[in-house]
Amino acid sequence: MSNHDQDVTDDFESAGVPDSFGRLWTPYRMAYIKGGQDQVKTEADCPFCAGPSRTDEEALIVHRGEHAYALLNLFPYNPGHLLVCPYRHVPDYTDLTQEETMEIAQITQKAMTVIRAVSYPHGFNLGMNQGASGGAGIAAHLHQHLVPRWSGDANFFPIIAQTKAIPATLGEIRQQIAEAWDEVHA
User: Fold this and answer.
1) Where along the sequence does the record place the motif called Histidine triad motif (predicted)?
2) Which of 63, 67, 89, 143 is the catalytic position?
3) 97 vs 67, 101, 105, CA distance in Å?
4) CATH number where 134 lies
5) How far is CA 24 from the centre of its chain?
6) Which residue from 5, 54, 90, 143 could staple onto 95, CB 3.0 to 4.6 Å apart?
């Protein structure tokens, strides 16, 4: 075996091994990522386009604005994990109008204030995954994630047991956030 072949073999054998970055490899999530890409290609297939035509309870919507809305993530990382979506079926942040961009930002700020008032998180993760290679589960319709975080909320349960403990139902969480939306001032 040449030195080059040995280097490639060493690299291959170390793939997936935790390193100084503390990576956690979650290959089981690839089925969710690929599944979303295969299923949503048009507005007719898009759950974010269909959601606003349903009741707030059915679609898990906590707030409807003029250009965008907020709903609970059907597969939350933590309780209160929201998605902020434009009503328009657009795939990229650069496709948004100024009005949509502003309203998504305003809804995100308000959502953070409301979630702080109802569940007292210690922090938040905010983010948009752009495109399939960027990790978007549904790349065809832009959506921003807002994930409340608490110290010590991450553990190995999802990785080892493929289980996530969420202490309330999505319906209960949706109701708490939706009811507090107009009461809490940003």
Assistant:
1) 141-145
2) 143
3) 9, 6, 12
4) 3.30.428.10
5) 18
6) 90
Residue pLDDT, tens place only, 36-66 = 545 677 788 899 999 999 999 999 999 999 9
Q: How many domains does the chain have?
A: 1
Residue 23 counted as domain residue: no
Q: Could you tell me the two tokens for 124?
A: 């938040």
Q: Is 73 annotated as a binding residue?
A: yes
Active site residue 185: no
78 is in an annotated binding site: no
80 contacts 145 by C-beta, under 8 angstroms: no
Over its C-alpha atoms, the chain yields an Rg (Å, rounded) of 19
Residue 34 placed within a domain: yes
Average pLDDT estimate for 143-159: 79
